[in-house]
Here is the input.
Amino acid sequence: MSAKNQRWLGYGACALAGCLWGTGFYFGKLALREMGVGHMVLYRFLFASIGMLPILLTSGRRTGPRWTPREIWTLLLASALGIPIQFLLQFKGLSMTTVSHASLMVGTMPVLLALGATLFAGERLDWLGWLALAGSTVGAALIVLGGRTAEVTGGPTLAGDLLVVLSLTIALGWILINKNLVERHSPLTVTAYGILSGTAMIVAWVIAVNGPPPFAKVSLTAWLALAGSGILCTSMTTALWNWGIHHVPASRAGVFLNIEPALGSWLGVQLLGDKLGPFAWIGGGLILAAAVTLTARGHDFDPEVLLE
Here is the structure.
């Protein structure tokens, strides 16, 4: 296969990953109709772990550097932050707000990555980068203020929007902690081990706090939503993104991260009847414009370990 064809396939893989990530909140909202947040996240990552098994079997045949005890503890810390803590907070926020509001908040992630790289990795933002950061912050504030009260049951709320933002901040810590690991080990292997260890933590926590998850009374729609969020939105997107990012420049592939908030908010409006007020439309526009501004330009941080 020619380099040109591989490059186009790489763009296609990143675009498809962005589209699948964009359906994550929609699938989550469907499952939350029949179970609590803890059980929904547990099932999501049980399905994601199944999707990661082929990756582990493949990576197990390769020789690579041995994992040191310090790296194992780093992986466990990153997994605790990135999976049980981040996702339980994020989907608790989703249960209190709308898919559209939650999806637009995810648009702040490329900006948070740039800020994290500036504060903790010694990178610099120029004036346009700081302007994009300010615009994204204003956009998030407008969305949050627009969801201060819910006019109808299931509408956006201030608490729900803020929990989603908090989960994204924790996700930033997860990515930065993983940075050293993916420099020495395969990003796909690090992600697979992280998902499996994080899933084990979720199982222990959720069963201890919420009890055994429901099974017999779960509808086919909910099972399909759970399988889609775990296999399509987690394990498959990881494989697609990591393959694509190795065939195209990261600075260009990062633009496809912006498909997630755009598609997620559209699904919320079209399929779930979400209503976006004027503040939310303006705020979402500011967030997406800031994200495109930062990801369309060259940068040094690599978002290849980012998961929805």
Remarks:
- Residues 150 and 156 are 5 Å apart (CA to CA).
- The chain has a mean pLDDT of 80.
- The radius of gyration is 19 Å.
